[in-house]
């Protein structure tokens, strides 16, 4: 489990690929300073497992389903990646509940500076937009952000200077793909409502009509 608060930007130093899977080696002295074999690590929002590490490098395996469902397969040597270690029980919970299980991929459609912030519009598949609400939480390439606009096809987030500088989102350009994880609690509620819609008088339309 993660919080979406990025701890470090690591650099990809080696990539091994076969037909369906990958292995990445990432330079990140900060993250490996207290690493253990088998630790979970979020790489651009994707929960992976540390299989080897040194004082400066860590290696993670990427299974076929993750290669297909995320942007991990687009990484190149030298690319920076957002990194977060699994949440500790005695730490501050600064973001929101993040599983590291990416729901899908979005496409950046615009970036616009507004005062001290940068607004980013991201086009999403319809099934992901349905899980988003204004002022709700979303994870973009592992970064916990707040949605301030939601349309039928896209969402908009705002980056403060710290987030812009300390994550890879500041380096993303229009047309780039990003990993998306929508709010976990909202997904569970929506899934439950859909499963019980034909068994109860309380439907999604009923809730919408009554202000929910």
TrEMBL record:
First-tier enzyme category under EC: transferase
Q: Which residues form the Lumazine-binding domain?
A: 1-96, 97-193
Start-end of each Lumazine-binding repeat: 1-96, 97-193
A Pfam family found in this protein is Lum_binding
Which reactions are catalysed by this chain? 2 6,7-dimethyl-8-(1-D-ribityl)lumazine + H(+) = 5-amino-6-(D-ribitylamino)uracil + riboflavin
Pathway it acts in?
Cofactor biosynthesis; riboflavin biosynthesis; riboflavin from 2-hydroxy-3-oxobutyl phosphate and 5-amino-6-(D-ribitylamino)uracil: step 2/2
Q: Which UniProt keywords apply?
A: Repeat, Riboflavin biosynthesis, Transferase
Q: From which domain of life does this come?
A: Bacteria
Q: Give GO terms for biological process.
A: riboflavin biosynthetic process
Q: Which GO terms describe its molecular function?
A: riboflavin synthase activity
Q: Does the keyword Flavoprotein apply?
A: no
Q: What is its EC number?
A: 2.5.1.9
Which CDD domains does the entry link to?
Riboflavin_synthase_like
The UniProt entry, under InterPro entries, shows: ATP_synth_asu-like_sf, Lumazine-bd, Lumazine-bd_dom, Riboflavin_synthase-like_b-brl
Q: What biological function has been recorded for the protein in this entry?
A: Catalyzes the dismutation of two molecules of 6,7-dimethyl-8-ribityllumazine, resulting in the formation of riboflavin and 5-amino-6-(D-ribitylamino)uracil.
State whether it acts alone or in a complex, and with which partners, per the record: Homotrimer.
Q: What is this protein called?
A: Riboflavin synthase
In the UniProt record, what gene is named as encoding this protein?
ribE
């Amino acid at each position: 489990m993660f919080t979406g608060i990025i701890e470090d930007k690591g650099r990809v130093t080696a990539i091994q690929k076969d037909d369906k899977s990958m292995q990445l080696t990432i330079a990140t002295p900060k993250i490996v300073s207290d690493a253990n074999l088998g630790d979970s690590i979020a790489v651009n929002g994707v929960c992976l497992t540390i299989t080897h590490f040194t004082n400066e490098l860590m290696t993670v395996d990427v299974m076929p389903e993750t290669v297909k469902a995320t942007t991990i397969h687009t990484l190149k040597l030298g690319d920076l990646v957002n990194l977060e270690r699994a949440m500790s029980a005695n730490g501050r919970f600064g973001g929101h509940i993040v599983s590291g299980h990416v729901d899908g991929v979005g496409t950046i459609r615009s970036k616009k500076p507004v005062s001290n912030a940068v607004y980013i519009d991201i086009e999403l598949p319809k099934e992901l937009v349905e899980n988003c609400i204004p002022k709700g939480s979303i994870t973009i390439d592992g970064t916990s952000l707040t949605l301030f606009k939601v349309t039928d096809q896209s969402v908009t987030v705002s980056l403060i200077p710290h987030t812009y500088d300390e994550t890879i989102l500041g380096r993303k350009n229009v047309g780039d793909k990003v990993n998306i994880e929508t709010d976990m609690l909202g997904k569970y509620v929506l899934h439950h409502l859909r499963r019980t819609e034909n068994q109860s008088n309380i439907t999604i339309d009923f809730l919408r009509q009554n202000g929910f």
